[in-house]
Specification:
This protein is mainly β. The protein has one helix and 22 strands. The chain has an 18-stranded antiparallel β-barrel. Strands 6-7 form a two-stranded antiparallel sheet. Strand 21 and strand 22 form a beta hairpin.
Length: 400
Amino acid sequence: MIALANSGHASADFLADSKASLELRNMYMNRDFRQSSAPATQEDWGQGFTLRAQSGFTEGVVGFGVDAMAQLGVKLDSTPRNSGTGVLAVNTSGEPEDSWSELGLTAKARFANSTLRLGTLQPVLPVVMYNDTRLLSSAFNGGMLTSDKDIPGLTLNAGRLNQVNQRDSSSWDDLSFVYNGAQSDHFSFAGGAYDLLDNLTASYYYGKLDNIYDQHFLGLVNTLPLADKISLRTDLRYFRNSDSGKGLGGKIDNDAIMGMLTLSVGAHKFGAAYQQMSGDGNFPFLAGGDPYSVNLVTYNTFGKADTDAWQLRYDYDFASLGIPGLSFMTRYVNGSDIDTPVVSNGKEWERDTDLAYVIQDGSLKGLNIRWRNVTFRSGNGLTNDIDENRLIIGYTLPLW
């Protein structure tokens, strides 16, 4: 009788704490190339479906659970001539697929405030971040241990990844270096963040893409209240990057110093950022992921060798004018002193504008619509010039 009672209690927690949702994302993207050496336009339109299900944990000293993620992408409109935005999967002959899908399963175990996950992972850490800027999101396969303040104020993460599922692919592939496609057996990482004060957090992370690169990260984030509805956020980041082992990614020996200040005044946010990169090689990160850079913007990453870049940004929340759910963002990034194998002192700049609205009530509550406009130009030997528009309609339906 005792065994049956305990079993029932465990099952109730495993099920009662579970949740599931279905995310619908419709995305149209048009990229207009302004340089003569490229096709005139790229244009894709698709519908994405992402089902996420998460169980609770069984009772006991060690609790067990399982998560699942299933994704389906469907082409609505595109042609082999114009595809290539990354919205749709493309086959080996360059033709966009009518549909593609992927399934990820994750086993998990929890002890105190520590959780071990094995299987499909979507980490958001300074040395490895998954990408979610198109129809479907990318994912990695591996293991990750997270300690969430088992020691007060300290969060720790460590793990190893061995495969990647790209945002526009159905297959699990070997990890690779974003700049030259060199493949690696695994990526290892470890680090954590510590709350020095209520509004001050310091962090350190280490990442290693085997035989390609090593990366060390130091970060400091502080939010300083200045007055009622006024605050200043400081985000400082330092990366030390070097090639590793066989150096399959080429020569990498650089430092990246970057920071961003954001002044919040009621409905307004004013931001300014700066980065300085020095040494050999581009800023390294995994293919299928994003770099943890203050100048990671809509189109460009401003991560080429020796790039110095500054950014100005402005955000506004229209709730203060009686239109809750409506928001606006614009930013400008200017990069200079860029080096490539064939260019010295190249220049790049990008201007982004986002206008977004989330329906606040009624039967369509939570439906969000976003328009993104990009202008990107380069010079001094760099020749990539584009105008781009993205229209994204999203809705997440809670299933239970």
